[in-house]
């Protein structure tokens, strides 16, 4: 009933200002950050930075093959919702007004999917984001520290009447209730999304799941911090 | 700090098996249900019905004009997320396996937008859905009663540190926390989506907002039931 | 054999510089004008204003549901033709060179369709357009009067060998000849589009239909003028 | 002030059941018909044939280059309107219910454009269509004669206050009124589309243009008939 | 076993700075060049010209009708590959840095297809390109001579074990090996694309086909030069 | 001047009938095969299997970030060309008529790109393909052995006048000539694609590059065979 232990590997590939592979057993996601020296058109006259995220699953990340979005010519609603969630959550962790004129793109590519990919994309993306910020600091493009706090995410759910966290595909598939919880290092909520997949749920159940989630998120944020102890730039 | 009072008008337009205009002051949405005697391809060999929802805002539902999705050739991620939420929530209210071979489409067209459109689309869509079911019963296409319960939805948020429900555009725009709550008539949760728009929020705040939400949702469901007392088919 | 009487309601919704609901019995269209302080790229270096129109039917404006254009990712040829006709007709009614740098968008959303929607979209759009012009005058953005004349539109057709005007869906469906006539207040033609839907038609028939159309268009333009007697800005 | 004389070349290219190049001085269009032994999905359970047309201009058919529609990923509204007009007009000339299960596609590719391309596409397309019908008869796939009549088309307009027919690009560009007239061999109207490009026009003007058009259309239909005297199949 | 003799007609249509119809028996392609006084965005700050090519087949260029790319809303991979090949090959023939700020577009529209269309599009496009350059020189927009050399193209293949060049559709269809060879007037290779359609091929076969190709390409380039002897501007 | 040594890892991820990570120093590609028990529509009435390939580069596989194809809504011409090349080459290696009713999809996702990705996608895809065939044999869905031979691929080029093979990004970027060579285990050519990127090249150069390529391809095919010695199914 505990979350799966996380394995976090820095710079599994060569490029990417931040560059993280995060594994929760059979879920494995490559999270990179790319720092770009411009902002999108809608922010051109503002005085702030921008952060956006993209989420994608390789076609054979899943047990049976999933068609690529490009086959239908448009991003799937599911991918679109997830990448908006990742971007929204990570944007709270930094102060975009503390530095301007830069865009950081967080790319989350799921190499292998076994449940909770959106949560672990946030967990890995947070580290990649901080590395991107450190790159800007290292290049003297930001002076101040724009980091508000770190955020962590965990899924929770009710399977056959019992609470579970960090659901794998088998649990997720059968879950009556599906809840994604994103919190910051102070234990405050950043985002909560709960769905009665098969059965309405009581507020008691909601609280029970939130009680289970926080210690795991706290642990994940500790692990993020441990990885970030290694000073930047790291050597390849 | 109370929710706006709802005005629900049945059959404002001539067609639609169900046909509802729902108004919460300056928010005004046309919700229709259409009953189709077939199911989408992915359900062709199953033994169940289907329910889907579409959400759209007229370009001048808003204070300044919003471009139509068709101008860019694809549905906006926001509309896509909302219509998925509406469909998911309303699907819980009926048993799709109790009748097969039919699709019910709930169309929610926002004529005027002043906050909380997704919640009131659910509130109006629920009535339109029941009317669609009644149409099928009236035509002897379903014998049993597939209705599990009614669902209602309300938005809640923190504006300048204070809790509000049923946010209008001005409140929504300034909200630090934005929460959409969908519950059924028994007070159980169907969906909860909370976002720290400007500031992380504590579980105490979450509970405070949930406390405010339930009486309003209960009142909305009472109002839905009052409308549904009129027997079907109603005369035009 | 007369045209249906028109009901014109100003500001049925809150926003839109002009804002008209026009009803011809079961045909009901919301026409708004939006004034934008820029012109499209192709006019950027010219010295004139721009006027464009968009036409859309709600999915359940019709007896059986019509799929939204966005489902196929592109505007239907029918909608495209109609909105080009509306824009072309209304552009003749004003002098775009008399004021520059502004775009007026006329949105025509059919809430309920029972024939002749393109004609009544023009009839309602004309009023919304004048209100948009008055808004610009009220804001001192145009000094001169750019209005050339008002235009009105009516459909006509031959059903079972007999001439009809302002065809409803049942008549339109059976019509052997379908004619849309747009004229200005001086009785001159702005646009004429006639199609032998089921049977070629003689020039005698064409003249008979034109004879029927003008008195009705004249009456419609009188009704537009009556609505426009209320000075701008009207109170909500 | 007369129409340009038409040059009609049969089988300029090798393939196409019908295969016509039609020239009106600098306007030159390749019109082919293709006979396909199936009907579109929406006619699958009906008992009739189908006829559709496609219209396209080569990028350098015009004085300055026009981008291909494919560059924007969708057919231009102008091409779409024109090909719908061609299809609608030619469909009146045959009885689709007299033979079933076949589709005839009329392709009109403008090699060189100097005004009136839509009218001459109809004039050439009519011949290609009859050749397609003859191919079906020759293959014993239709027994009866499904041809109702031949149709011809001519443009007319007012340029600097004077009436013109078969407008070339220079005339069309300056025309105050632009009228396209499609009639059958009996002098009845099939389609009429008139637009006040720069100036509203009176019914007197409309009649004057119609008076000019009919003799030219009659002449064109005579020319079509002369070409069709050559029995099918012609030798390459 | 020889290449088909080429027929090259200059200015078959009225417009196009260069304007060539090239025929190899039943293969017939219209090649035009258009000179535009700007460069694409990606070259805006560079100091060079641009050359691009577009390739398209008319739907009835082939024995049975081929759907237009626009029907699917995107260019077919085959057309895309071919137009990239044409552009790449012709770009080698001129020095884009010798003149800046202009774009030359080579449009290759296949009117009739009987094999080897990509090669003959290059052969005709080369002449159209030089005419475009001459237009720029004639207008005093380029002083120097940017032409490096002329290029010619020929297809080759193995059919039933025997080598062929300039394959027509019947040969191409049955070819075990399909090779497209583009060379310049000095006998150097510009592009070579060989595919084992049905059977792997030895280097001996490759050399045999290259031996056959060069004399034909040399002959084609002689023919290009002969056409280009006529001084520019030619009279229409 | 030798090819980079290849590292081939089997089953780096959990799913995929075949599942290969292939590395040539900093080029790293994930190649999977997916076996599907149906064929595409165009083969439905044939008696054969189908094989297709998809190629994609992760956005941060490259030194600076590359936008995903989905951002523009269509596959890039480069990706499209490459995946067609991979599919075409691998199809020669098996006899699709030896087994029917199945589709094998080869997915090649470039995790890290440092030149020659299309060649190594073929090298890795070949192994994944054989594993897919073995899966079908293991499930008793094919009895016979449909493998014709193995194919290998290598890039070659001229950089500063000197021949190189297996070009990395830096070499590729500066190459005057760029050649991709695909051969089978018998030393016969499957595909050859050569482009004069900066300078036309002689047949002598072509032969010199082909001389260099074959021993490397032979070595690669030996390495493929060594990997395939491990019997299927392998344990995870």
TrEMBL record, chains A, B, C, D, E, F:
Its EC number is 2.7.7.56. Keywords: Nucleotidyltransferase, RNA-binding, rRNA processing, Transferase, tRNA processing, tRNA-binding. Residues 17-130, 151-213 form the Exoribonuclease phosphorolytic domain. SUPFAM superfamilies: Ribonuclease PH domain 2-like, Ribosomal protein S5 domain 2-like. The keyword Secreted does not apply. The keyword Transferase applies. Phosphate binds at residues 78, 116-118. It catalyses: tRNA(n+1) + phosphate = tRNA(n) + a ribonucleoside 5'-diphosphate. Homohexameric ring arranged as a trimer of dimers. HAMAP family: RNase_PH. Belongs to the RNase PH family. Phosphorolytic 3'-5' exoribonuclease that plays an important role in tRNA 3'-end maturation. Removes nucleotide residues following the 3'-CCA terminus of tRNAs; can also add nucleotides to the ends of RNA molecules by using nucleoside diphosphates as substrates, but this may not be physiologically important. Probably plays a role in initiation of 16S rRNA degradation (leading to ribosome degradation) during starvation. This is Ribonuclease PH.
